[in-house]
């Protein structure tokens, strides 16, 4: 079964068409990238899939179940979560607490037992804390276990968002420019992290401008141009497509996916 | 030993000790009265800080809930002869229900718009209490019978001191428990980034409603106790300036600091009593104190002091 199916998705902002009649399918376990020039509508697609925006038309299925109109929190419960292009960190909390919120099943915590701090709540807290520590270690943030989120450097915050998203135990993870603003070494670490996430069976949809990263990591690539489907295929196919080269890639990647 | 230094155990213990020992140094009923007012304001401010400091949702109308609690107790005990405790609980439940109904539409607003929305809410409550003269006595106010439980009557400053002190201690304990739980983390996450909280599964609307209701209920309980203690209330309890006073206590003491709220309530309740000797300059000095704190300690008193101590000890 496909992890995500999008059919005829459209969204206008005051007469400006951000996404138009977009359809695509992401298979389970894939790393699926969406690329395109600035303003191509990549982040809008993310916002439509995750319920942040309501589509004007079109339908979305998550693992065969239609999810149109559901709020993001409900979709998180169904295994769909994301990170943000512009960091959305809880800067008023510690780094570890940021991840714990992802691990918390807040909806299942009783109000009275939280008020009285009953043993069930303590156990839950300890469990979430342990999960959060493990995830921070996994994304390479072991050095920041006791730190306030506000004290972390930019590259670490990018990974903190990924750890927080993983804490919700997603089946489908949307990463919005995880490598933006990172240096070479940091990008390579993100590359490895995304691969290991996919190896764990999580389907990944990636929006990214770093073409080396995208071309090397993606099972399939969707190219958008001004909100419209331009091309779709493997890195090699997309790199050879003259429309894509003209609209976005330039000649560097033309015909050679192994440039990555 | 380490547990004693944690805010929940250590801070709570310190608060209990202060409440227990304070009567030994309070020379007369004037000071007991001030201490009781501190406690009542602190109860309201702990709730308000959950809303403003932790969840990041401003309210400029909480005196409205305080006033409604006060009038619910006054009316139910005075005009209808209800037992005091039942009036307090029913009043708090009714205020909680009202807050629940208002929460959805009002908390959809953000920032300045939320401030305006809650301000309007408080003003409307205050107008209703003023206008419904047949019920509330209008601007002249109304008397409130003494607090009575099973034939025992709470009378006098010393008795009320223990009632208010005990209530504050329990309120503080519950609030500290709440913010350390998953619910508390969800509230703080909403403050940090509502959209990020949503996409990792926090039902933000539900938690905003919850914390709005909690803060309204605590304001109502504070209002009910104030009504019985003072024996006479007027609609001014619900008015805009009273709401501002609560918010100022929370901000001065420190956002997202439970003990900061108690400190803020203490300073802004005690200071005016002693600045009264300055007559016309009282408000001026009070304003200057608040401006200085906001300029030099923008996080509020307690968080700034804690940070200072931490840096010293490094």
Task: State the CATH architecture of chain B.
Answer: Orthogonal Bundle
* CATH architecture name of the largest domain in chain A: 3-Layer(aba) Sandwich
If you compute it from the alpha carbons, what radius of gyration of chain B comes out, rounded to the nearest whole angstrom?
Answer: 19 Å
Tell me the name of the CATH class of the largest domain in chain A: Alpha Beta
Number of domains of chain B: 1
Largest interface comes to:
A-B, 42 and 28 residues
How would a textbook summarize the main sheet of chain B? 2 strands, antiparallel
Descriptors:
heterodimer, A: Rossmann fold, 6-stranded mixed β-sheet, 4-stranded antiparallel β-sheet, disordered C terminus, B: 314 residues, ABC transporter involved in vitamin B12 uptake, BtuC, 78% helix, 3% strand, globular
Write up this protein.
- The complex is a heterodimer of chains A (260) and B (314).
- By secondary structure, chain A is α/β, with parallel strands linked by helices.
- Chain A folds into 2 domains: 1-79 and 170-260, Rossmann fold, CATH 3.40.50.300; 92-169, no CATH class.
- In chain A, 38% of the residues lie in helices and 24% in strands.
- Chain A is built from 10 helices and 10 strands.
- Chain A has helices spanning 42-49, 72-77, 95-103, 111-116, 119-138, 154-166, 184-199, 211-217, 235-240, 242-249; strands spanning 2-13, 16-27, 31-35, 57-62, 65-66, 80-82, 172-176, 203-207, 220-225, 228-233.
- In chain A, strands 6-7-8-3-9-10 form a 6-stranded mixed sheet, with helices on both faces.
- In chain A, helix 3 (95-103) runs parallel beside helix 6 (154-166).
- The longest helix of chain A is centred in the middle third of the chain and has 20 residues, at 119-138.
- Chain A starts with a strand and ends in an 11-residue tail after the last helix.
- Chain B is mainly alpha-helical.
- Chain B has a two-stranded antiparallel sheet with strand order 1-4. In chain B, strands 2-3 form a two-stranded antiparallel ribbon.
- In chain B, a hairpin with a 2-residue loop joins strand 2 and strand 3.
- Chain B has 15 helices and 4 strands.
- The radius of gyration of chain B is 19 Å and the shape is globular.
- In chain B, helix 3 crosses helix 9.
- Chain B has a single domain, classed as Orthogonal Bundle (ABC transporter involved in vitamin B12 uptake, BtuC).
- Chain B is 78% helix and 3% strand.
- The chains are: A alpha/beta (260), B mainly alpha (314).
- Chain A binds chain B through residues 50, 52, 71-77, 81-82, 84, 88-93, 97-98, 100-102, 104-107, 109, 111, 114-117, 121, 124-125, 128, 161, 164-165, 167-168, and chain B through 174, 177-178, 180-186, 188-189, 191-193, 195-204, 207, 210, 256.
